[in-house]
Automatic annotation (TrEMBL), chain A:
Residue spans crossing the bilayer: 14-34, 78-98, 110-132, 138-158, 195-216, 241-262
Protein name: Carbohydrate ABC transporter permease
Source superkingdom: Bacteria
Native organism taxonomy: Bacteria, Bacillati, Bacillota, Bacilli, Bacillales
Biological process annotations from GO: transmembrane transport
From TrEMBL, chain B:
UniProt name for this protein: Sugar ABC transporter permease
Family according to the record: Belongs to the binding-protein-dependent transport system permease family.
InterPro entries: ABC_transporter_permease (IPR051393), MetI-like (IPR000515), MetI-like_sf (IPR035906)
Pfam family, any one: BPD_transp_1
Keywords for this protein: Cell membrane, Membrane, Transmembrane, Transmembrane helix, Transport
Cellular localisation: Cell membrane
Transmembrane segments: 12-34, 75-98, 110-130, 160-182, 203-228, 263-285
GO annotation (BP), single: transmembrane transport
Species this protein is from: Halobacillus salinus
Membrane topology annotation: Multi-pass membrane protein
Domain ABC transmembrane type-1, first and last residues per copy: 71-284
One GO cellular component term: plasma membrane
Length: 276, 294
């Protein structure tokens, strides 16, 4: 018995050390980003490089807001995130509709929704641009927001979860005279909290990171998102790596913090969706 | 009361379905139609300037050396990148599944982080790391007396650099899927194996990996589809260069569509990509069928 315990202890140490080495390799880019973002411009190109800045400064972060319009980009990004939560609500409602109502052609319509997941983004990218152009929505916030609101995969996950809600519960509420929307908002949404948590985080991340579509649609700098702004910064200050790293950190750190708090829901969400 | 009640399902599914119709279904039709036309910037302003050209766009694509190069590059990415991502994410998942507790949760977060990191931030950070003169990678390699590597300046090395970056970014999501599958394997299987005196490797190859077959299939199909559309990495890191050395099919379509405004030509390219994806996916499903007959 003692021998097996000893063996498993050795094994555990090996597993942990491999994990640690891999973890360090994976985090090098993040560590380097944070460290460089606090270096003055002269130190960032120094050879040999310093891991901990000799003269730490927050000047780079201040420059993001004084030299660049990061306040505007931040505002636009937050607007996009907020509207993407409206999209999340639409997806949840559709998932509920497909799960708990019967109507003609329901199955077929649901298959069509699933089929849209298989269309590569490159195929729809150009026509969506042409459609938005026809509607006069290029270079507007609406044009940036609208195409991303409905997500087939999200509808699918909501439907999967909501089919597990007992029908008796909904019937009982109806007998008590509750309206359909009252049932959805007051009864179904609280029950579906776990799936809302996962989808909420993923929606936030997607909205915060949105890049390609804002880049295609927005011509005015006043509509740029943080990622478009960061790519502008990369072009304008090609050699100022300290400033670039500060911009990158400004984008990445909020996501890391949010993820650190909610990571358990994401893992549970994948287990829930039955991808086994 | 009755007819009102019947309207409810449509009130619930209406907004999402309308948006999907407008931005996913109609575009497919539009893309198909314009792929047979010479639509460009002129056609955007004046529809009467759009001419029907039949299969001309498709014919032109296959004599376009940039397009052929982009197909070659895409297969280069897929053939090296996909197995690499699957092996890495499976290994990480196996490591993380070894135990429970705070350490393992922390490492799970660490390995997942790259996949939720904004692509531009990634480009900014990795552009700095890959810098030939000031980059960290070349500095670290100089200790092993390796000459400065032109990470992004030589076509083949640049492709490999992008693959490294994409693998780094791609581990997270697949690792989570493998982890969910691993946690779904009943403990009794392992206990039975232990009683039969199976060693670690026997358990891994005879029990764990076979039981992960469905997860592996799922990951392989989705990863392959994703890598066939390899786009963001060359777009933000190299812009397809040097000498079109890193251009992918998806990037080619984007360039034709939004840089040169050749909408018809780009749409034709996107259908070639679509057909390639369908073909590869169908082949995988076919192989899987023969596999399960055993």
């Amino acid at each position: 018995m003692a021998a097996t315990k000893n063996k498993s202890k050795v094994e555990k140490t090996i597993v942990l050390s491999i994990m640690l080495i891999g973890g360090i390799l994976v985090s090098i880019p993040f560590i380097w980003m944070i460290s460089s973002s606090f270096k003055p411009e002269s130190e960032v190109l120094a050879i040999p490089p310093t891991i901990i800045p000799d003269n730490p400064t927050i000047e780079n972060y201040i420059n993001l807001f004084t030299n660049m319009n990061f306040a505007v980009y931040l505002r636009n990004t937050i607007i996009i995130v907020l509207f993407s939560f409206l999209g999340l609500l639409f997806n949840a409602m559709a998932g509920y509709g497909f799960a708990k109502y019967d109507f003609n052609g329901k199955e077929k319509l649901f298959y069509v929704v699933l089929a849209t997941m298989m269309i590569p983004g490159q195929v729809t990218m150009i026509p969506v641009y042409l459609i938005l152009n026809y509607m006069g929505l290029t270079n507007t916030m609406a044009g940036i927001i609208l195409p991303g609101l409905a997500v087939a995969f999200s509808i699918f996950l909501f439907r999967q979860f909501m089919t597990t809600i007992p029908n008796d519960l909904l019937e009982a509420a109806r007998l008590d005279g509750a309206g359909e929307f009252f049932i959805f908002f007051r009864l179904v949404m609280p029950i579906a909290k776990p799936i809302f948590a996962v989808q909420g985080i993923l929606t936030f991340i997607a909205g915060w990171n949105s890049f390609l579509w804002p880049l295609i649609i927005a011509n005015d700098e006043s509509l740029y998102t943080l990622s478009v702004g960061l790519s502008l910064l990369q072009g304008q200050y090609a050699n100022n790596y300290a400033l670039q790293m500060a911009g990158a950190a400004f984008m990445v750190v909020p996501i890391i913090i949010i993820f650190a708090f909610f990571q358990k829901y994401i893992v549970e969400g994948f287990t829930m969706s039955g991808l086994k | 009361m009755k007819p009102f009640k019947k309207r409810h399902p449509f009130l619930f599914i209406g907004p999402a379905v309308a948006l999907l119709t407008l931005f996913s279904l109609i575009p497919i039709v539009v893309a198909f139609v314009i792929s047979f036309t010479d639509m460009n910037l002129k056609g955007l302003a004046d529809w009467s300037a759009i001419g029907f050209v039949g299969l001309e766009n498709y014919k032109e694509l296959f004599s376009d050396s940039t397009f052929l190069k982009s197909i070659f590059n895409t297969f280069f990415y897929v053939i090296i990148g996909v197995p690499l991502v699957i092996i890495c994410s499976l290994s990480v998942a196996l490591l993380l599944n070894y135990g429970t507790g705070k350490i393992f949760n922390t490492f799970r977060a660490v390995y997942y982080m790259p996949s939720i990191t904004n692509i531009i931030a990634v480009a900014v950070i990795w552009g700095y790391l890959y810098n030939t003169e000031y980059g960290l990678f070349n500095y670290l390699l100089s200790f092993l007396s390796v000459e400065n590597i032109p990470w992004l300046e030589e076509p083949t090395i640049a492709k490999i650099s992008l693959i490294i970056l994409a693998v780094w970014k791609g581990i997270g999501i697949n690792m989570i899927i493998f982890l969910a599958a691993l946690q779904g394997i009943p403990k009794s299987y392992y206990e039975a194996a232990e009683m039969d005196g199976a060693n670690r490797f026997q358990v891994l190859f005879q029990i764990t990996l076979p039981l992960l077959r469905y997860a592996t299939f799922f990951v392989t199909v989705t990863t392959l589809i994703g890598w066939m559309q390899f786009f963001e990495e060359p777009f933000v890191m190299t812009d397809g260069g040097p000498l079109d050395g890193t251009i992918s099919v998806a990037l080619f379509i984007y360039e034709e569509g939004f840089r040169f405004s050749e909408f018809g030509y780009a749409a034709a390219g996107s259908f070639v990509l679509f057909a390639m994806i369908i073909l590869v996916t169908m082949i995988q499903f076919k192989f899987r069928k023969t596999d399960t007959e055993y």
